[in-house]
Amino acid sequence: MIAAILIAAVNSISFILIAPYAPSATAGVALLLPVFIFSDISRLSPILYGYLTGSAWKVFLISGMWGLGTVVGSLVSSLASGSFRIRKPRRIDVARSFFGGLLMGVGVSLAHGCNLLHSLGGTPLLVPASILVTISILIGAYVCLKLILKFGV
Amino acid sequence: MDFTIVLLIAFVTGVILGFLFQKGQFCMTLMLTESVIFKNHKRIAGFVGAILVSVVLFNVAAFLGVTDNFNLLRQVGVNPKFFQAPLAIDRSLIGGLIFGFGMILAGGCVAGVLFRIGEGQLSSVIAFFGIMAGFATAIALEIVGVIGLEASLYPPGVLLSQILQVPVIPLVTLTAVFLLALLLALLRNARSRVFLAILLIFFLAIVLLYHSERQSIQSIAPPVELNEKQVEINRFISSFHVAVSNRSTAKIVPFFTDDALMVLPDGRLIRNVTMIKSYYEKEIVLYHQYIIYGKVSSIEVADNKATAVYNSGLRSWSLGATQPPYIPYRETFTLIRIADAWKIESLVLNARRSE
Q1: Which range has the worst mean pLDDT, A116-120, B12-16, B28-32, B345-349?
Q2: Min CA distance, B331 vs chain A (Å)?
Q3: Residues with Cβ < 8 Å from B199, sequence gap 6 or more?
Q4: Rounded to an integer, what distance in angstroms lies between the CA atom of residue B38 and that of residue B60?
Q5: Contact call for A10 and B13, based on CB within 8 A
Q6: Pick from B6, B24, B119: which is nearest to A62 by CB?
Q7: A27 pLDDT above the threshold of 70
Q8: Backbone angles phi, psi at B32, to 5 degrees
Q9: What is d(CA A118, CA A111) in angstroms, rounded to the nearest whole number?
Q10: Residue B21 near residue A70, CB atoms below 8 Å
């Protein structure tokens, strides 16, 4: 609980200062691909076009650094508390993780941002899309949990 | 500000947040699992608390102007409102549902995946690669045409208060109170009936706020009663505003007579229709998107001449601006009726103060 409040405080500062876009380090790579394939991207997606023609690569770089920092921070934290351990997943978990990650990637592209961006970056400012995305993420996750409980995947 | 310093700050905030994520095990999947399966709402209460604190801090910062003045992104030439997603209801809903589904399968939200990589969880590394593959898939689907183009109801950066047309401070206070009630209910393990009641009260309060705001607007500006001829003129001017908002000179030009006159706020005079066309061509590329609002001030109609005065405003936005700049001005049209169609004979633009 205290950690959550602290997270909120630090998060606010970081959002105000640099507005990180957590998955966009990967997004940057993926978004740059069609530029090389199709030069006329303005027809494809105006928003994407806006991202790429502006200084969006800087945003991706900043967010990439932010994401790297998160990994390093949690590495430090887990090493300090002694909970660091290379955990090998079972084979079924590998498939599940990859498929889940795939769905997350598609969802992030559709919803213009991950849960962190929407729930802690957009909802506090009352950005309507973010509120909508946060609610639908909760619904989607709830449905998936209930399905797993019922069929035991 | 040097770009490298910004990168360094991003890295440092990332490290601090990663540390806290790991300590608090801050992950949406974990808290939903605990809440739904084990009926332990502590974690989700923490999440609601985090949003509550963010609501207060964000809005205080925005109110004090910190977001505008101290934003590092702006200093390195990036639009800081980049992350405010445009409201495309279908995309947001479907994207959110798919994301929520994948989040449970992958065993962690984006924050969860990042901090579990740091903990040495290999399945999270695989989930990370899955996210990358997902991006590529989505872009491939967009190129093929399965996922449609952006169809945003509002331009990016429009906030809830602007859509509901209610003042910001009461709305934010209301949201904060709502989140606080939710937090207390979660901490006390309240029944679902209590949650529904809180939600209902929240919506009722917003409706009340909306209603009271509507009434206050109406009491300030009584609607102008228009007779039949004035309605015709008003329709003509509205279609002119729509044509300008559509950013098409081909649609704008037929509204003017060949020797039409235009006077700009800075006193410049534009004669004849070709010059007017080139003026609009230059004006249109200035903005990413804009909309013209026109409010009738007065309309006088004679047989085939008319004068109309409009209090108009131009709301423009570049991609992702939160508060689109609003440029108010007064338009005085002189209209002439040629062959059963109204044309603009002269258009005078004056600057006016915003009300």
Answers
A1: A116-120
A2: 32
A3: none
A4: 36
A5: yes
A6: B6
A7: no
A8: -70, -40
A9: 9
A10: yes
R_g (Cα) of chain B, nearest Å? 27
Residues B171 and B242 reside in one and the same domain: no
| Rounded-to-integer distance, Cα B84 and Cα B80, Å | 9
Nearby residues of A18 by Cβ (< 8 Å), 6 or more positions away: A62, A66, B6, B9, B10, B13, B72, B73
Are residues B164 and B28 located together in one domain of the fold?
yes
The alpha carbon of residue B292 and the mean position of all alpha carbons in its chain are separated, in whole angstroms, by 16
Q: For residue B92, what are its two tokens? A: 């947001």
Assigned domain for B152 exists: yes
Question: Do residue A96 and residue B106 have CB atoms under 8 angstroms apart?
Answer: yes
Q: Exposed/middle/buried for B247, CB within 10 Å: 0-12, 13-18, 19+?
A: middle
Check: CB of residue B114 under 8 Å from CB of residue A64: no
Distance CA B36, CA B27 (A): 14
Indicate yes or no: CB of B77 within 8 angstroms of CB of A55: yes
Are A109 and B127 inside 8 Å of each other by CB? Answer: no
Structural domain harbouring B184 = 3-192
Q: Is A22 on the interface with B (CB under 8 A)?
A: yes
Statement to judge: residues B34 and B151 lie in one domain: yes
Segment A55-65, tens digit of pLDDT: 556 666 677 77
Count the domains in chain B.
2
Instruction: Provide DSSP, B18-30.
Output: HHHHHHHT--HHH
Q: The pTM is what?
A: 0.67
Residue showing tokens 């899955």: B130
Per the domain annotation, does B216 fall within a domain? no
Its ipTM equals 0.81
Tell me, yes or no, whether B210 lies in a domain.
no
Contact A126, B172 (CB under 8 A): yes
Evaluate whether residue B199 is within a structural domain: no
Asked whether residue B164 falls in the same domain as residue B311, the answer is no
